Amino acid sequence: MTQAQQRPELDKNLDARTPTIEQASPESGSEGDTITIRGRNLASVEKATFQVGQDTRRGEIVQRGEDDQVKVRVPRGLAAGGGQILLSNSTGESNRLKFTVRS
C-alpha cells in the first residue's frame, strides 16, 4: 500500500483519540442546565459522565462536532455538591474535571 493510500486511515485514527478536558463553562450548574466543555479530541465523544460522591449519572450530549468543545446537559437526580465530569469515546476516558452541582 502506498503512503497516499494509507493517509485516510491515519486521519481517521487521529479523530478517535482519547478526549482531554480543559475547562467547563459554567463551572457549576443545576440539573437540566447545558454546559460547554472545552478541550481536545471532543468531536468523537460518545458519553458524558457526572459524579457526585458515589453517585454517577450520564449527561446528555446536546451538541458535538467541533474537536475543541462539546455541550452537555447536567443529568437529573444528582445530589447537590462538589463532583466531577469525565468524557469518553471508543478510545478511552478523559481526565476528570471538577464540577459543582447546584440544587
TrEMBL record:
InterPro entries: Ig-like_fold, Ig_E-set, IPT_dom
Location of region: Disordered: 1-34
Domain of life: Bacteria
Polar residues bias: start-end ranges: 20-33
Any Pfam family hit: TIG
IPT/TIG domain sequence ranges: 19-100
Name of the protein this chain belongs to: IPT/TIG domain-containing protein
